[in-house]
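Researcher: Re-running this chain for the archive, since the previous output was lost when a drive failed. Same request as before.
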Amino acid sequence: MNHTASTHHSWLVFAVSGFIALVYGIVALFLSEEIITAIALYTGLLILLSGAGMLIAAIYRLRKDLPFVSLLMQAIAAGIIGILIILYTQHTIAAFLTVIGAMTLVSALFQAYLLAFGQHNFNNKGVDWASVVITLVFGIVLLYNPYAVAAYLVVISGILALLAGSLMLWFAVKIRKMQ
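Model: Regenerated structure tokens:
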């Protein structure tokens, strides 16, 4: 396997993962659970309203004998997703955090693979492996059960997210410079 080809766009993966972790860290540290729930609820409402708008547009296109099926399917999907978010806001937030946890674990495993088997010579392997461990811990905390974890773990996960996100961005920059 060509390790150089496998790392060609990996900097972007780490940059996006790092950015997501930083956003989560800021949200976890500075927004209350009520605000996060309200944001999720209003997001569900906006998705539902956009689905209604697409439905109106699809009906209009149907009446004008224009293609409408794709728009109708999008309207139905948006409506269902919006309703599910509104009805199951807490579950939606937990699912979102679980997806972030899974993405973080995949990112950590990929980073470990690059460190262990990549052909690049990383100068600060201690810091790089610390980044892998921190990222793994963050992913496991989120996967464990986002809402069953006590409130103090949200703060800890926020701090870990800020640290892991910063380290992933730093790792992305290092990989990008090697290309």
